[in-house]
Amino acid sequence: MEPILDFLKIFSSILWEALPFIILGAIVAGILEEFLPQEFITRFLPSAVVPAVMIGAALGLLFPMCECGIVVVMRRLLRKGLPLSCCIAYMLAGPIINGVVIFSTWIAFRDHGIGPEMVGLRVGMAFVIATITGLIVHLQYRKYGYALLHPLAIPPASPEPESRSANEANGRPAPRPSGFTRIGNISSTALHDFVDITMFLILGAVLAAVVRSYVTEQQIESFSRDQPFLSIPAMMLLGFLMCLCSEADAFVAASFTKLHITAKLAFLVFGPMLDIKLLLMYTRVFRVRLIVTIVLCEVLLTLAVCVLVHLIYQANNWTGLPAGV
C-alpha cells in the first residue's frame, strides 16, 4: 500500500506543480495567436542566422516561461513565423534565461557563497547550448524544411488575394473584432493547446512518478560521490527523471551540498531542457528526425560544456563546493 501512496503523492505533486504553468502557457499562446500579426517578430530579427538565433535564445527575457509551458508558447511563435532555429533556441534557453529563474537560482545558492557564480554559469551554459543547437537545427531545416514539424506546428500559408474579404479587396480595412470575439478566440486557442499538451504531461508525470518511487535523491548523491567521473551524467539523468520546474530546481540542486559545482550545473541546465514530460510534448510539435537531433545536441553539448568547466576548475584548484563544505 505504501508504494502506491508514494506513487500517487509524487504523481500529484508533479502534475499540480506543472499545471499552472501549462495553463499560463496556453493563455499566453492564445494571446499571441490573437494579437501578434503574422511574421511580426521576424521583422525585428537580423537577416544573419547566428545573431538571430542568439536573440532567440534570449527571448525568455521577453516571454518568461518555465519548461512546463514553453512548448505551447514556442509552437504558437513558430506558427506566427518565428524561424525554427530561433524557436528551438528559445525553447531550450527560455526556461533558464528569464528573470524568475535567475532570481531563484541566486537565492538558492546565496547562503553557499556561490550565488552569482551559479547564476552566471547556468545562464551562460544554457545560452551556448541553445544557440549551437539552434544553428544545427537551421542546417537541418535548410535540407528538410517543414518536413521536420508536426502538422499542428507548421505556419499557415499567407492568405491568397482571392481569399481575402471583399472589404480588403476594395481597399477598405476589415472591421475590427469586438472584445468578446477576441476573448472567445483566445479561450478557444488556449483550450485547444491545453488539452493537446496536458495529456502528454499526465503520461510524463506517471513515468516520472514510477522512477522517483524507486530511485531516491540520496541514492543519486551517494552514487555521484562514490563515482566522481560519472557525477555529471548521473545528475543529467536525475534532471531528466525528476521533471522539476525550472523555477524550483535550484533549491533541489543546492541540497546536494557535497557535489561539485559542475554536477549541479549539469542538473540545472539539462533538466529544464529535457525531461520525460518534455520529450513527450515534443511529439506534438516535431517529427522524430528533429527530436533525435535536439536530444543528441542537448546530451552531447551539456556533457562537453560541463566537462570543460570541470577541467577549468580543476586546473585552478577550485573546489566548486559551497563555503564551509
Which SSEs are present, and which pair or pack?
Elements: H1 2-35, H2 49-57, H3 67-79, H4 84-93, H5 99-110, H6 115-144, H7 166-169, H8 179-214, H9 217-226, H10 231-242, H11 249-255, H12 261-273, H13 276-282, H14 288-315
Helix pairs in contact: 1-3, 1-8, 2-4, 2-6, 3-4, 4-6, 5-6, 5-11, 6-12, 6-14, 8-13, 9-10, 10-12, 11-12, 12-14
Question: Can you describe what's shown?
Answer:
This protein has one domain. Helices cover about 70% and strands about 0% of the residues. The chain is built from 14 helices and no strands. The longest helix is centred in the middle third of the chain and has 36 residues. About 5% of the residues have low confidence.
Number of beta-strand segments = 0
Largest sheet: none
Low-confidence stretches: 159-169
Apparent shape? globular
- What's the number of structural domains? 1
Helix content: 55-70%
Discrete helix count: 14
- What is the H/E string? HHHHHHHHHHHHHH
What is the rounded distance between the termini? 39 Å
What key attributes describe this structure?
325 residues; mainly alpha; 69% helix; 0% strand
Report a brief summary of the structure.
With 325 residues, the chain is an all-alpha fold. It is 69% helix and 0% strand. The protein is globular.
